[in-house]
Design a protein that fits this description.
Blueprint: H1 6-10, E1 15-23, H2 30-40, E2 47-53, H3 60-69, H4 73-78, E3 79-85, H5 92-102, E4 105-110, H6 122-131, E5 136-140, E6 147-149, H7 153-170, E7 182-185, H8 201-208, E8 214-218, E9 220-222, H9 233-251, H10 259-291, H11 297-320, H12 328-359, H13 364-387
Parallel strand pairs: 1-2, 1-4, 2-3, 5-8, 6-9
Antiparallel strand pairs: 4-7, 5-7
């Protein structure tokens, strides 16, 4: 018979609270985070902190192990620290999943390890789970009382865009489904098979934990002061993959057959495509004005519109309206109508951009975003009815 390892013997068999901290190169932050968590855990609550480290080159896992060994006996009776060392950088969601699978707590809290999530919020989360009859508590940046500190405009725009994509594509009503700071009753995920793709496991729980009762509480996200952000191109690609997988998962639900749900689903897909078009539009327009200062900003806007119209048509035909007929005549007629309705929206967009910049003194990036958002509403209804021959409602 195999002899259990010492850390397995020390690990508690059942506790009220588990806190999962995924890490990668967080040696500058991790002990401060653990100290703050320890100070925030309600008096008399026995807890475990599970650090899941993806072989950080800066030795984060070793820093935590040394910290755990230095804990006094009194502290060890109320706080168990476990380090899961993984062989490489395997992704945030899979790290969280590994921590959750290892957790013994009846309640699991997931949070970042870079001091952006205040541990002082944990007692409020536990209180809501205990007294509000909810199963999931989401610490939200986007409800009254919440906020973000230290983010540049570009990061705020990306976060808002990702949030809208999740809400419209997946039918999620939570204001901050992209939050990485949340708590849940362990029992609600029993029997769920997780894909662990992307960087936000909360999305999977919200989609797959049917009937779960959710409560959002406000908190202020504070941008990291030490270490570097993990947000890169591969992270964004993983996010798109995760949303696509979750969308396909939800398609099998019987509610999809209801006319209202079908309409909202189509609208969600259309605006998801629109968000990608917004990105194409914005990047092309912005890059042209940045690289070629002689180009008038309205000319740059026209170029961005033209490229986004083409990408939007292809994605909407294939995904939103599920039209696989690419015969030449049909496709050209549809493209002409789509482009025509988009041109109408473009006139609205150009007029708004010009008015907001010249008459109201707004910055060009903000004016561009507001104009694209306004034009997209008419685009959806007109294209649904006339380009792809569907009922407006249904």
């Amino acid at each position: 018979m195999e002899t259990p390892r010492q850390e397995e013997l020390l690990k508690p068999s059942r506790i009220p609270l588990s806190i999962v901290l995924p890490t990668y190169n967080e040696s500058q932050n991790i002990t401060r985070v653990i100290d703050s968590i320890s100070d925030s855990i309600p008096e008399g609550t026995k807890a475990e902190i599970i650090v899941v480290d993806d072989s950080s080159p800066d030795g984060t896992g070793s820093v935590v192990a040394d910290y755990a060994n230095r804990l006094g006996q009194g502290m060890k009776k109320r706080l168990h620290i476990e380090v899961i060392n993984r062989p490489g950088k395997m992704g945030l969601s899979s790290a969280i999943l590994a921590g959750v699978e290892s957790a013994c707590g009846d309640v699991v809290v997931v949070m970042d390890s870079d001091m952006s999530h205040p541990p002082q919020t944990i007692p409020r989360m536990l209180e809501e789970l205990a007294h509000s009859k909810c199963d999931i508590v989401v610490a939200s940046r986007y409800i009254k009382g919440g906020g973000v500190s230290g983010w540049p405009f570009k990061r705020k725009l990306m976060s808002k865009g990702a949030t809208k994509i999740a809400q419209y594509s997946l039918g999620i009503t939570v204001k901050d489904p992209m939050s990485g700071f949340f708590a849940f009753r362990r029992q609600i995920i029993e029997g769920i098979k997780f894909d662990a793709i992307g960087y936000k496991m909360l999305l999977e729980i919200l989609v797959k934990a049917k009937g779960a009762r959710i409560k959002e509480i406000p908190y202020t996200f504070t941008n990291r002061r030490l270490g570097s952000s993990k947000l890169d191109t591969s992270t964004m690609i993983d996010y798109v993959r995760a949303v696509w997988r979750l969308y396909r998962y939800g398609r099998s639900a019987p509610e999809e057959k209801r006319r209202s749900v079908r309409f909202l689903s189509k609208a969600g897909r259309f605006y998801t495509v629109g968000a990608s078009g917004l990105l194409v539009n914005y990047l092309v327009s912005f890059v042209l004005t940045a690289l070629f200062p002689a180009i008038w900003y309205l000319h740059a806007t026209i170029a961005g519109i033209a490229l986004s119209i083409t990408s939007n048509f292809i994605l909407n035909k294939l995904w939103t309206f599920e039209d696989r007929d690419f015969s030449a005549k049909r496709t050209l007629v549809q493209y002409g109508m789509f482009a025509g309705f988009s041109a109408f929206g473009a006139l609205v967009q150009l007029g708004m951009v010009y008015y907001l910049v010249e008459s109201q003194g707004q910055s060009y990036p903000l004016a561009l975003i507001l104009a694209v958002a306004t034009a997209s509403i008419s685009n959806f209804l007109l294209n649904k009815k006339w380009t792809f021959k569907e009922r407006v409602w249904g």
